Amino acid sequence: MAHDRTAIVVGAGIGGLTAAVALRRRRWDATVLERATSLEPVGAGIALAPNAVRALESIGLGDPVLDLAALQGPVGLRRPDGRWLVRGDASMVGPEPTVLLHRSQLVDLLRGALDDGAVRLGVTVTRVDPGGPSERATVRVRARDDSEEAGLAADVVVAADGIDSPVRTALFPGQPGPVYAGATAWRFVTPEPVAVEPAETWGRGSVVGLTPLADGRVYCYLTATLPEGTRFRDEVGELQRRFGHWHPPLRALLGDLDPATLLHHDLRWLKEPLPRYDVGRVALLGDAAHAMTPHLGQGGAQAIEDAVVLAANLRAAPGSAAVIGPALAAYTAARKGRTQGVARMSAQVGAATTWRSPLLVGARDLGMRAVGRWVLPRAARRLDWILDWQPPVA
């Protein structure tokens, strides 16, 4: 079926690909422009909470995601020596499970839901003009060989170009960018299956998380409170020094770690929120709009929600700005308060993981042990407003 409404999506991450899938289901001709020459995410898993799974269900991808994923099992927090601070099963934090999979599996699934040619790799967006009441948005792009630039026009442009979004910077030139959250993070996925009990371990200014995937491999993330930009000549050796004496199986996992599979990034977020997520015919989503720390596991989920809500608001919009403008304004109204609230809450949770004072850490751990199993369902109730989200009705 021919599409008479066109969208350009800048960025082929999870949010951008989801937006393209959702828009195409709403009869938009959506093209994704990605500056990388391949879509091969490495070294990272992703947890999709129930709100994200519902969003994917609304665009026909719920069952395929569940087919690929592991369901979250026991949950809890440990000390570096292995003693449990809080322990329970997944039912204590809600009736619907969180699903766990490798990020590359989700990217492959989303791309597979798009037509051939819908994703153009090796294309750098150099300029975006948001358009106006009587003109479409335009995008200037440069091909991978840098030989020439070309102009593209669309009824809507979706900026899903990440935490350092050039589109956001151009549209909001006086807006402060992302700030350091106080911790740096390493991530990797084991090459072979490993038997682990899923949990987070909190130490002094450090966190380790072990998450089994459906194929038996393990996604591991580690954080440390360090000055922004800290890097090490021997990253694996530094992890072994910092975490090798923690409870099993960390020593074994780090001892077998291939440096080429290790990711290391500082944790940053948009502490100063954007005033809106739409300018002219451009809509921002995901990290470009509201980058957040990973402490609630909601960064990818909120990008997926954004994409589904944006497409729902544009479902009946023809190409005229008289309709697209209000549709994008409605998208901002639906997403701004929610996503910025999630970002603030995630930063608050993350702050407790950066404590280094023995007194503060001791009090934190004692408090967790004292409340025991009571803390998990109570904490889950604080997240109800996030996890109970429902996608727009078609």
Structural notes for this entry:
- This protein is an alpha/beta fold.
- It has a domain at 6-71 and 103-178 and 271-359: FAD/NAD(P)-binding domain, CATH 3.50.50.
- 35% of the residues lie in helices and 24% in strands.
- It has 13 helices and 19 strands.
- It has helices at 14-25, 50-58, 62-68, 103-112, 166-171, 235-243, 250-255, 287-290, 299-313, 321-353, 358-371, 375-382, 384-387; strands at 6-10, 29-34, 45-48, 70-71, 75-78, 84-88, 99-102, 119-121, 124-129, 137-142, 149-154, 156-159, 179-189, 199-202, 206-212, 218-224, 263-269, 278-279, 282-284.
- The protein has a 7-stranded mixed beta sheet. Strands 8-2-1-12-19-18 form a 6-stranded mixed beta sheet.
- α1 runs parallel beside α9 (299-313), α2 runs parallel beside α9 (299-313) and α9 (299-313) runs antiparallel to α10.
- The mean pLDDT is 91.
- The chain crosses the membrane at residues 6-23.
Chart the SSEs and their pairings:
Layout: E1 6-10, H1 14-25, E2 29-34, E3 45-48, H2 50-58, H3 62-68, E4 70-71, E5 75-78, E6 84-88, E7 99-102, H4 103-112, E8 119-121, E9 124-129, E10 137-142, E11 149-154, E12 156-159, H5 166-171, E13 179-189, E14 199-202, E15 206-212, E16 218-224, H6 235-243, H7 250-255, E17 263-269, E18 278-279, E19 282-284, H8 287-290, H9 299-313, H10 321-353, H11 358-371, H12 375-382, H13 384-387
Parallel strand pairs: 1-2, 1-12, 2-8, 5-14, 12-19
Antiparallel strand pairs: 3-7, 4-7, 5-6, 9-10, 10-11, 13-16, 13-17, 14-15, 15-16, 18-19
Helix pairs in contact: 1-4, 1-9, 2-9, 9-10
